[in-house]
Amino acid sequence: MTEHAAATERYLGAYRAFAGNGASGAPAWLRELREAGMARFADLGFPSPRLEDWRFTNAAPIADTPFVLAHGAPAAAAAAPHLLRGVGLHRLVFVNGRFDAKQSALSGLPDGVTAMSLGEALVREPERVREQLGRSGVHGQSAFAALNTAFVADGAYVHVRAGVEARQPLQLLFVSTGSGAPSVSHPRILVVVERLARVTLVESYAGDGVYWTNAVTELVVGDGARADLYRVQRESEHAYHVATTHTRQGRDSVVNLHPVSFGAALARHDITAVLDGEGARCVLNGLYLGRGSQHIDHHTVIDHAQPHGESHEYFNGVLDDRSRSVFAGRIIVRPGAQRTDSKQTNNNLLLSEEARADSQPQLEIYADDVKCTHGATLGPIDGKALFYLESRGLGSEEARALLTYGFGAEILERMDVPELRAQLDAIVRDRLLGAPARRAG
Questions:
Q1: What H or E segment, with its residue span, contains residue 203?
Q2: Cα–Cα distance between 52 and 29 in angstroms, integer?
Q3: Could you tell me the CA-to-CA distances from 162 to 186, 196, 221, 405 in Å, in that order?
């Protein structure tokens, strides 16, 4: 029996009800995928801090809360405050895990770009979805991803044909209303970018109240293609957010992933990037801000499977009050992946004596002609930098605010969508400059 056996059994019961109520009409391959996900979840159960990958993060608040499966509900105003402004009207909106056609806008998409709900894609393009959905094998690696797979029903599907460039961002917005009993949604995102194609996506999560979002994103990028994925997590600070993002790249492809985490009481994001083609390039550029008792956990794996790959990983965190962060970054260089160039940096700024950051950079190198570096820093505001600004006429609080803001702005400056960057900058300014609190340092 696992530590959370009762919770595991609760979800087994919920799955049986789900499978017998509407989901039974799914094609055989999808039923098999769901069954495999639930079997794997039953085998793994909810993770315990006794597991190495979870020793700094306690999933008990999620396991012990009796979440019920969310149902989409009309919420005309739910999405409005979280829509990306100034970059066009293309968006897919989901409320409580279900597609909301009224708040979505897809007219004018370039020829060769398909964007629809995953539920619709399962009807209109079942063979193409079957070819890629679950191919990453994420449901075999994580109990939460397995649970998502068991309940997969809706989410976003994006397909970009070979040679097509969709430069205007497409927003995938998931909003939870958190009304009534605590609920859970399992959004699934599948993005396929064929050879020499290009797409920019903004994946957003927001909501109010107590709920749990359990999301999985699979991104497949073909030879010579490019995908820019901006991921903004602004869940309610009473909510829980667990996510898995898996990318697989072909030869000479580029993936730029920008995960930004502001919300949730407990947030965990597992990222695996597989550079499966020679000359592939990947950038992970992440920012997290914690306050109160927020807990923010990022586990990343960059897997160099082929030679001449290049990856750069930057994660900055700013932690206040009693908040805590976890960063575990693992770089793998497979046998034969010669001429790999990989760099990883995790920097944490602690604004309170009670804030805490745990950082675990890791290298696994099985090739001999590589350049790999990693490093981590944590601590309060640099006293010398503070003194320098004060000596130039800035007040103490103003100097602290400027240094703190710069820590977050460093990550935002690498983002290529000006409108999104400006909106995130406003959030960072409000969080870091809005109220002068007592500071350590």
A1: strand 198-207
A2: 33
A3: 30, 6, 11, 41
Look at strands 198-207 and 165-176 and give their pairing: parallel
Task: Give buried/exposed letters for 75-109 (b at 16+ CB in 10 A, else e).
Answer: beebbeebbbeebbebbbbbbbbbbbeebbbeeeb
Give one DSSP letter per residue of 127-157, joined into a string.
Answer: HHHHHHTTTT-GGGT-HHHHHHHHT---EEE
Nearest to 377 by CA among 365, 389, 400, 361: 361
Enter the tokens of residue 246: 């898996």
C-alpha to C-alpha distance for 63 and 10, rounded to whole angstroms: 10
| CA terminus-to-terminus distance, the chain | 47
Q: Which two tokens stand for residue 96?
A: 């409580």
User: How do residues 153-188 score in pLDDT, each as one tens digit?
Assistant: 999 999 999 999 998 999 999 999 877 789 999 999
Backbone angles phi, psi at 321, to 5 degrees: 55, -125
Residue 54 has pLDDT above 60, yes or no: yes
d(CA 284, CA 269): 13
Task: Identify the top-confidence range among 76-85, 163-172, 250-259.
Answer: 250-259
Residues 231 and 203: beta-carbon distance below 8 Å: yes
Whether this model's pTM surpasses 0.90 = yes
Tokens of 377: 């820093």
Rounded distance, CA 247 to CA 434, Å? 36
Which residue, among 132, 351, 75, 327, has the nearest Cα to 246 in the 3D structure? 132
CB 273 within 8 A of CB 247: yes
Question: What is the phi-psi region of residue 112: left when phi exceeds 0, alpha when psi lies from -120 to 50, beta otherwise?
Answer: left
CB distance 327 to 359 below 8 Å:
yes
Range 359-373 average pLDDT: 94
Structure-derived torsion over alpha carbons of residues 346, 349, 354, 357, reported in degrees to the nearest 10: 0
Burial of 394-432, coded b for 16+ CB within 10 Å and e otherwise, reads beeeebbbbbbbebbbebbeebebeebbebbbebbeebb
Residue 27 structure tokens: 């094609």
For residues 78 and 99, give the distance between their C-alpha atoms in angstroms, rounded to a whole number: 13
Q: How many CB atoms lie within 10 A of CB 208?
A: 15
> 247 with 281: CB under 8 angstroms?
no
Q: What is the mean pLDDT of the chain?
A: 91
In whole angstroms, what is the distance from residue 272 CA to residue 138 CA? 9
Residue 419, pLDDT > 70, answer yes
C-alpha 21/C-alpha 141 separation (Å) is 28
- Residue keyed to tokens 């959030």: 427
